[in-house]
């Protein structure tokens, strides 16, 4: 037995060595030009091979069952299949949900208007527009990886193909709907089943991915803060990449949760909370940067000594976390640094207040000591946020018994964008219907179907015209390949096996292209429309006329949709930034006067969402404008957080009456900040400086230790607000058109 085990071990080592020679570890694979086709990565090739085989199996089963349009089963496999198991299962679930909703709505539509073409087209357009409206408001960013939105896209997709197929034969609409639903369910079940056969230690790899995501985020934040503490103020530009990375990693957590299976606990919730704490950690770093660059001035020797220790800790922290699953040594070092910050604050208070009966301290010394306490307090807050992030990370890596923790996904609804997306889709589809009715085109229903599919898929995106252009390119290539197959290669095969052999390489090429980011939308179009253009059947074979009556409506429909997206409520980056800026100013007023005080996490996540949206839609905008808006978003986030902290201080009623009044007046000004008629920016900035001056005078008069600390906290918030208002005046002044010449 030992000899057999040794032989098996050697054989496994030889296999691993063979694959290492093909794909050396750590090697960066180029994907430019055509390397994605003839030199793909092993995972890319595995995905393409698996999905090709699955789609051919789905097509074979549909032909075996003698279903009317078997190509829809193969199409569904390509629509659902993704690179990871978690993405595939998540997308399959929402696709199945969307299929059920779309099927029910399609049956009702055909039953209500079987012989009223204008009303049928109108309700078809309104229905898909409604799905786009709901999809835009669902949680998460409007990207192709957000499968909640994909559920609504699938609803519109199914609604269109069933109703447009059924309106030609309204009496058999139920059978049409059931056959289409059967194709979709068959494709989903097969893709989920086959992909599950190729998973090895799936739950363990999902847990490792959660840990790796956190390590990536926390290491980026730690290195940024360490550079900031060393005096490198330019490092704040790196924080933008860290914020964007946090959003991307957080979006992947739900897929890891799916892969961990039914026996998972709340690891995903803790991981989501840990990443949110990392974002809060960076926001605290922005506070400290404002204090270090503002009127607080140069830090003293005590702060520099503590800062040096913190820098060393931040640089080594990621390595210590990766080296061991035991987080307690890291938390112990962190506790020592927190104690050092608190001790610095205590020493400063002892020096300022002195002993009973001692001489009063010089007012300038009082102000200097107060400012140094603010630095130490801000550094302590950074360490406190870091502690919370590490605790949440440890809970995600080592699940707790009887854990009931839940971290809800935040939703930032944009009703104006939802209405725009809905109206754009409805107008485009209704226009296609009018073309069909007025021209009586024999392939008009096919033309409307393709337009409806594109509107369902892309109207929830902010730049649907660009996506449709890429889709059009993929459809043209699919038409050429399908033309060669239909008119030449598939003219002679009489068995399924030979047909599958002819389709294998064209489908495999589409799967390989899907993994290349520059071709992903074109590859999706190619993979979706190739089965439709082939039109396989048991008793029939496409001839030239049938092929061109499918290919021409496809190309014309995508071309029409692309131009409709450009003409009907087109996306404007200048207007998007302008609306974002007015929304930020409105948000600051809301934070200052809302009856229910928003949480700091809400402010951070909302601004990070804006941050990512701005970067996603940068297009050809000059870097100076993008950088200025990014700086404005970070500055607004910093002001909003400090406004929340000031409101919390006011609600505690520990400030002296005079200080309470002055800070309250400043908050009243903030509640009107850059309002409708402008002019409030200067008043708010002056009010912040006035409050700082009064609190500095009151600080030296307070004998109570708690009151003195409360005044220091309020002063720290006011210093940060005043600094941000002064250094981003043009962004916060609503009377200024800022950097967009179109809005000038």
TrEMBL record:
GO molecular function annotations of the record: transmembrane transporter activity
Pfam families per record: FUSC
InterPro entries reported in the protein's UniProt record: PHBA_efflux_AaeB/fusaric-R
Transmembrane segments: 37-65, 94-113, 120-138, 434-459, 471-491, 498-526, 546-569
Protein localization: Cell membrane
Keywords: Cell membrane, Membrane, Transmembrane, Transmembrane helix, Transport
Any one GO cellular component localisation term in the record: plasma membrane
Membrane disposition: Multi-pass membrane protein
PANTHER family reported in the protein's UniProt record: MULTIDRUG RESISTANCE PROTEIN MDTO, P-HYDROXYBENZOIC ACID EFFLUX PUMP SUBUNIT-RELATED
Name of the protein in its database record: FUSC family protein
């Amino acid at each position: 037995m030992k000899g057999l085990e040794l032989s098996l071990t050697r054989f496994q080592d030889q296999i691993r060595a063979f694959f290492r020679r093909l794909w050396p570890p750590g090697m960066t694979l180029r994907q430019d030009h055509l390397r994605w086709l003839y030199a793909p990565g092993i995972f890319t090739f595995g995905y393409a091979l698996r999905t090709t085989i699955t789609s051919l199996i789905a097509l074979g089963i549909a032909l075996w069952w003698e279903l009317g349009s078997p190509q829809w089963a193969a199409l569904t496999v390509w629509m659902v299949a993704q690179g990871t198991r978690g993405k595939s299962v998540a997308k399959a679930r929402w696709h199945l949900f969307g299929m059920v909703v779309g099927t029910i709505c399609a049956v009702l539509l055909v039953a209500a208007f079987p012989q009223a073409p204008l009303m049928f087209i109108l309700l078809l357009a309104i229905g898909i527009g409604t799905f786009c409206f709901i999809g835009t408001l669902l949680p998460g960013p409007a990207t192709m990886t957000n499968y909640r939105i994909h559920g609504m896209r699938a609803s519109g997709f199914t609604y269109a193909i069933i109703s447009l197929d059924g309106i030609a034969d309204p009496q058999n609409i139920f059978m049409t709907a059931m056959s289409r639903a059967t194709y979709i369910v068959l494709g989903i079940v097969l893709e989920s089943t086959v992909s599950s056969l190729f998973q090895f230690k799936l739950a363990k790899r999902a847990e490792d991915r959660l840990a790796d995501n956190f390590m990536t985020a926390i290491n980026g934040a730690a290195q940024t803060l360490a550079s900031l503490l060393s005096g490198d103020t330019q490092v704040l530009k790196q924080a933008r990449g860290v914020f964007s990375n946090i959003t991307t990693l957080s979006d992947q957590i739900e897929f890891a949760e799916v892969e961990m299976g039914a026996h998972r606990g709340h690891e995903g919730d803790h991981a989501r909370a840990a990443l949110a704490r990392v974002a809060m950690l960076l926001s605290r770093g922005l506070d400290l940067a404002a204090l270090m660059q503002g009127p607080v001035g140069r830090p003293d020797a005590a702060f520099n000594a503590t800062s040096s220790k913190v820098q060393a800790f931040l640089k080594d922290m990621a390595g210590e976390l990766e080296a061991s699953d035991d987080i307690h040594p890291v938390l112990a070092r962190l506790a020592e640094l927190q104690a050092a910050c608190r001790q610095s604050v205590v020493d400063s208070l002892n020096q300022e207040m002195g002993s009973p009966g001692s001489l009063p301290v010089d007012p300038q010394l009082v102000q200097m000591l107060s400012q140094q306490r603010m630095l130490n307090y801000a550094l302590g807050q950074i360490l406190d946020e870091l502690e919370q992030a590490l605790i949440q990370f440890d809970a995600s890596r080592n699940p707790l018994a009887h854990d009931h923790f839940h971290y809800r996904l935040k939703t930032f609804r944009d009703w104006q964008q939802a209405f725009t997306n809905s109206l754009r889709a409805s107008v485009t589809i209704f226009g296609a219907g009018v073309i069909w009715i007025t021209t009586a085109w024999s392939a008009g229903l096919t033309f409307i179907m393709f337009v409806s599919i594109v509107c369902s898929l892309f109207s929830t995106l902010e730049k649907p015209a660009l996506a449709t252009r890429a889709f059009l390119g993929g459809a043209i290539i699919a038409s050429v390949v399908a033309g060669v197959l239909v008119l030449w290669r598939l003219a002679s095969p009489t068995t399924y096996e030979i047909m599958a052999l002819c389709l294998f390489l064209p489908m495999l090429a589409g799967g390989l292209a899907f993994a290349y980011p520059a071709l992903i939308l074109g590859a999706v179009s190619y993979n979706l429309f190739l089965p439709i253009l082939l039109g396989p059947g048991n008793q029939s074979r496409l001839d030239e006329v049938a092929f061109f009556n499918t290919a021409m409506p496809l190309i014309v429909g995508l071309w029409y949709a692309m131009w409709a997206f450009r003409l009907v409520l087109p996306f404007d980056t200048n207007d998007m930034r302008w609306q974002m800026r007015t929304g930020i100013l409105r948000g600051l007023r809301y934070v200052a006067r809302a009856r229910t005080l928003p949480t700091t996490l809400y402010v951070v996540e909302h601004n990070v969402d804006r941050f990512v949206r701005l970067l996603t839609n940068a297009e050809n905008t000059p870097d100076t404008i993008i950088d200025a808006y990014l700086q404005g978003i970070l500055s607004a986030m910093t002001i909003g957080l400090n406004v929340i902290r000031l409101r919390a201080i006011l609600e505690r009623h520990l400030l002296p009456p005079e200080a309470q009044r002055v800070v309250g007046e400043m908050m009243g000004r903030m509640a009107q900040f850059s309002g409708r008629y402008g002019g409030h920016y200067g008043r708010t900035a002056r009010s912040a400086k006035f409050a700082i001056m009064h609190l500095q005078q009151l600080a030296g008069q307070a004998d109570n230790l708690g009151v003195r600390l409360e005044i220091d906290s309020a002063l720290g918030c006011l210093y940060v607000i005043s600094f941000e208002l002064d250094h981003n005046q043009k962004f916060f002044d609503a009377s200024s058109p800022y950097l967009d010449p179109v809005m000038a």
